[in-house]
Amino acid sequence: VGQNLVSLTEVDSTNNFLKQSLANSTPLIEGTVIMAESQYAGRGQRQNQWHSQPGKNLTFSILLKPTFLPLNRQFNLNVAISVGIIKAIEKVLGPNAKIKWPNDIYFGSNKLGGVLIENMVQGSQIKNAIVGIGINVNQTIFEDGAANAISVKQILHKDYELKALLAEICNEVEVAYLMLRSENFEPLQAFYLQKLYWLNELRPFAANGITFNGIIKDVNPNGLLCIETNNELIQYNFKEIEFLN
Ligand code: BTN
């Protein structure tokens, strides 16, 4: 991952760039990384926008071809990617990095980065996976909408070299991806759960317009969040459940 690196000054979104390159049949090897200094239409999960001050942060996308992954195990790729990013972040920031389900990157109770994976399915195979990663590195002022955002610089109190962090993330994502590919998924799953934010804590949630208190117990093989409430274990997908504060 990252052997083939394309550095752009400005682009709408590195995910879009990869998607268009694939649509134009541009031959791209697996592990290709597209990074951009600036995105003018960066995208996040839940139709959110992803804002990042030009030149300050990591915004990049990795092309993977997980054709070996059954469609009902798509979430395993999210697990592997999250694990890779956390391992890299831990090298820089120590053990406080967390994964907020499904794959937000947290440090303590603040959001350090996010992941947007877009799978391109053909028949029963994932032909291409576009793994978009945004990490707040040297930005120190965030807009109002991103009140709980934090950056590497705010934690270390000094600038961090973007290329060095990128290399670290690429290495660790590759290690995790190769584990996934060689069917050595157990350790990835275990690490993911161990790093899961709010695991086994009583927390407020909202689902179907109802608020309730529950405890995150697990993430099942389909990637559903398992929450215990009233001695019942209920599974939610990303659209169904909302975290309250
Ligand atoms: C989220 O937290 O909602 C996911 C954010 C993902 C942002 C990255 S930045 C690089 C790539 N290109 C995009 O347009 N989005 C992802």
UniProtKB/TrEMBL annotation:
Molecular-function GO terms, alphabetical: biotin--[biotin carboxyl-carrier protein] ligase activity
Domain BPL/LPL catalytic: 1-181
Entries under Pfam families matching the protein: BPL_LplA_LipB (PF03099)
InterPro entries: aa-tRNA-synth_II/BPL/LPL, Biotin_CoA_COase_ligase, BPL_LPL_catalytic
Tree of life domain: Bacteria
Gene Ontology CC, one term: cytoplasm
Keywords: Ligase
Protein name as annotated: BirA family biotin operon repressor/biotin-[acetyl-CoA-carboxylase] ligase
Organism (species): Mucilaginibacter gracilis
Taxonomic lineage of the native organism: Bacteria, Pseudomonadati, Bacteroidota, Sphingobacteriia, Sphingobacteriales
